[in-house]
Structures are given as structure tokens and as C-alpha cells.
Design brief:
2 copies of one chain form a homodimer. The first copy, chain A, is α+β, with helices and mostly antiparallel strands and 229 residues long. Chain A contains 8 helices and 10 strands. The first copy, chain A, folds into 3 domains: 62 residues, Winged helix-like DNA-binding domain superfamily/Winged helix DNA-binding domain (Arc Repressor Mutant, subunit A, Orthogonal Bundle), CATH 1.10.10; 64 residues, Winged helix-like DNA-binding domain superfamily/Winged helix DNA-binding domain (Arc Repressor Mutant, subunit A), CATH 1.10.10; 80 residues, Ferrous iron transport protein A (FeoA) (SH3 type barrels), CATH 2.30.30. A 6-stranded antiparallel β-sheet of chain A has the order 4-9-5-6-7-8. In chain A, strands 1-2 form a two-stranded antiparallel sheet. Chain A has a two-stranded antiparallel sheet with strand order 3-10. The structure holds a DNA duplex (30 and 30 nucleotides).
DNA sequence: TACAAATGTTAGACTAATCTAACAAAAATA
DNA sequence: TATTTTTGTTAGATTAGTCTAACATTTGTA
């Protein structure tokens, strides 16, 4: 059984090596910064986690998760995101309030609790921030990226980037009410002029195809490919 | 902010001095036994909690909670029992499974979480074991004790004691399936012979008034008096 | 009441997680 | 390439919570 602290180190390492970018290793200082501890502290823990065969680490080298370490880290992330979803959907927390409490709840040890929570929430694939919730077997469903104009009517998606970085475009994006990771619903597409009607945070707008093809989105409802971790 | 350990000591002291019997103090060995630690360990913590003005304690004397300590302990009990109720009612845990997980969940720090959970559960007064859940203001609704023959038809109650301690009677109690603290439902009362039909753990039985007046119960549905703590 | 048993305390040690300060290695750059 | 900067490590100290072993006090009883 891992301590809360050990779990946090594994989670931080996962976030640095897997989720943020696709570099496979993280440095000691970097990890320490992520966790809000001093490098000396992180260094001790790295040695301890290597002893437990949860990470790969060599003196003066970068660190990465072993298969077992990755599995444990993914379990923590899964719990975190399921709790966030529960707090948001069943207890009326706002999306910015859920994280802090989920940081505590993610360390509760009870496989049955997490299974049942997953069931209660109807096996969600995304948390309130739009992040992917790993399945019980540790797989992550990664939604394919596309642009807003390719999205089907009736589907939900979220913006994860833009193709045009001009000030004019970005100001327009802002005016329409689009924010990174905020859910977007595609309401309709006018046959006459191809205008796309969307709803963001309760606010409805119509955007042109020209605009829409510069908004990179991930679709929550579309076919997804599994990323085994 | 109290540590998980400190909270556990306060809760244990509450259980020893308030819930089990009505003696107002507990000894160091007794407290240590309750928590599964050695007396030396408990002794250190007693000094620490006295420093924080959460308990009354003097060298070689018994310990008891201060007003502030009692308040903190009741909060922990409240959280424990609300979580038990949630696990039982919303996640389909059996009543014997809830305790272990609630021991972990009771230490989650988030007033909002507990308020919302209370609301979700519709402000319950009893947990799945039939124990009283303190209110948000720290009051406990104490159900009045009476005997089974005084209970109304349709009400739920639980056995908390017996008046007759003879072997004959106790064996009969056992045969009917009655256990301490197990929910009993009063199904009907025959007008002809006054036999009381009850249901315990799915098992239906009929008992005589003579039998019923020797079973001490608390009624979950009846009027209750508030015990401010 | 005196002694034995029960209860409670102290001292010293251990582990986990943290820190600071000094030092070592690797990387960047002049 | 030599030097500076960044990065990483080690040593030693600290805090919380625990232990064992020895000692002290209180309680109960012969």
C-alpha cells in the first residue's frame, strides 16, 4: 500500500512525463517544483520509489514511471477525476471548486467505492474540466482532434487550440465567449449560408465556416481511440 | 487544523466518555486500547491535545473533552455517519462494509462537501447502524427509549437492551432473530390476541406482548428530544 | 496498612516526510 | 575549452506519530 505522499509523487511524475507533453522523463527539480517541495526532498523520494520498482531513476539522471508505477499513477488520476465529476454533477460544486477536494478524496483506499462511484456516474469519459477519465483497466479514451466546422450538429465538444493566432481572430474568439476547455454545443448548421450555431456557457452565437475551421476541438461524442497506458 | 490522528483521538475520547456510557472521563490505557496504540503513545498525544485546549488532562488523572474538543469530535462523528449513510443509500454498500471506508472519508476537510452531502441525503437523523447523526450545529436527536410492545404499527426501531436476562428469554430472543441495534419493523398487531408481527433482517415473526415488553428499543420514527453537546 | 496489581509516565529510539546548507555533476555559454 | 550556471545529491536537523523498556503513582486487597 502506498502512502498519500508516494501517490502524489507518482501522479506528479505522470503529469510531467505523459499528460503535459510527450517527453518521457522528468528532472528532480522539475518534479520538486510540481509538488511544492525542495529538490532534496524529492531526491529522497525518488530513491525510495526506485527501491519499490515504481520508477526508473539513476543518480544525476531523469526519472520516469515503470509499468507498475504508471498503473498506480493512472489509478490516482482516475479516482481524482471521478470524484471531481461526482462533486460537480451530484453535489453542485462549480468546476473551479472541485479540484481541491478531489485532491483529498483521490487517496481514499477502497476499490469498491471507486467502482460504485463510476457506476453511479454512468461510467463517464470526461471530468468537469474536459479531461479524460481512465477506465477501470487503466485505458484512456483519447478523443480525436478536429476543427469546429467538422463537428456534427448535436454534438458536444471543447476548444483545445486555435489555428489562427492573429489578434483579430483571438478577440473574435473571446467575443463569442469561447474559452479553452469549455464545453461547446453545436446547435445547428444553416443550409443557406453554412453558419454554425453554437452554445457556450448558455450563450448562443452563430459563427462562419471560416471562423470555425480555425478552432481546434476535441469531440466528446465522437469515436475515440483507446490509449493503453 | 487538526491532523487525522488528532481527530481520531478526540473521536475515541468522545466515544468513551459520551456515547458508551455516561461517565465523563476516560483513562489513558482505556483510550490507548480504543485506538489500538500503546499507552505511552496516547500519553504523548494527551499532552499535545491539552496544549491545544481540546481536552482536560492532568498527570495521573483521567481525560475529558473541553467544549471545543467536544465540538470537533462531534463534527468527525457527523462526517463519519453521513458518509456511512451515503455509502449505504447511494452506492449500495452493505451496513457492515460502510464503517471501514467511512473511517477514511471522515477526515476529508471541506465544510461545503459535508453540507451538500447532508442535503443530498435529505438531512438524515440516523446512519445505517441506527446511530444518531449530529446536526450541522452539533446537536444530537436522541430517540426516547421504550419497549417493543409500546411501538406503533408501521414504525421502525432497534433493540438496545432487554429487561429480562434469563437464559430462556435470551434464547428466545435469539430464535426470533433479534440482535442488538438491528432494525426491527413492526408490521401489525392482532386485535384478537395482541400478538405483534415484526420483521427483522427479512425474517417475519410474531411475538407476544409478554415478550415484547421485555425488549427495550429506540424508535427511529418517533418524537425525539435534542441533546445539545 | 502494606504490598501487589493495575495504571500511567518518561526516556530513548525509529520511520516518514520535510527542511537547510554544503557540495558535486552536468549543461550552457563566453 | 574553461568557466559559470543550472541541476542534482548528501549530510544533518526537525516534526509527528509510533514503539519498548524502565520507572512512578494510584488502586485494590490480603
Amino acid at each position: 500500500m502506498l502512502s498519500t505522499t508516494e501517490e502524489n509523487y507518482l501522479k506528479a511524475l505522470l503529469q510531467l512525463t505523459f499528460e503535459q507533453e510527450d517527453k518521457a522523463e522528468a528532472g528532480t527539480n522539475e518534479l520538486a517544483a510540481q509538488l511544492g517541495v525542495k529538490p532534496a526532498t524529492a531526491n529522497d523520494m525518488l530513491k525510495k520509489l526506485r527501491e519499490k520498482q515504481l520508477i526508473h531513476y539513476e543518480k544525476y539522471g531523469k526519472s520516469s514511471l515503470t509499468a507498475e508505477g504508471k498503473k498506480r499513477a493512472v489509478e490516482v488520476v482516475r479516482k481524482h477525476r471521478l470524484w471531481e465529476t461526482f462533486l460537480y454533477e451530484h453535489l453542485g460544486f462549480t468546476w473551479d471548486e472541485v479540484h481541491e477536494v478531489a485532491e483529498q478524496l483521490e487517496h481514499i483506499q477502497s476499490p469498491k467505492l471507486i467502482d460504485r462511484l463510476d457506476q453511479l456516474l454512468n461510467y463517464p469519459s470526461f471530468d468537469p474540466h474536459g479531461d479524460v477519465i481512465p477506465t477501470a483497466s487503466g485505458e484512456m479514451k483519447i478523443p480525436a482532434k478536429k476543427t469546429l466546422n467538422e463537428e456534427q450538429v448535436g454534438h458536444q465538444c471543447k476548444m483545445v487550440g486555435v489555428k489562427d493566432n492573429s489578434a483579430t481572430f483571438l478577440q473574435y474568439v473571446d467575443k463569442v465567449g469561447l474559452r479553452m476547455n469549455q464545453p461547446i454545443k453545436v446547435l445547428s448548421r444553416q443550409p443557406y449560408d453554412e453558419l454554425i450555431e453554437i452554445e457556450v456557457n448558455g450563450l448562443k452565437s452563430s459563427v462562419s465556416p471560416r471562423f470555425a475551421e480555425n478552432i481546434v476541438i476535441v469531440c466528446n461524442d465522437c469515436e475515440i481511440r483507446m490509449k493503453s497506458i
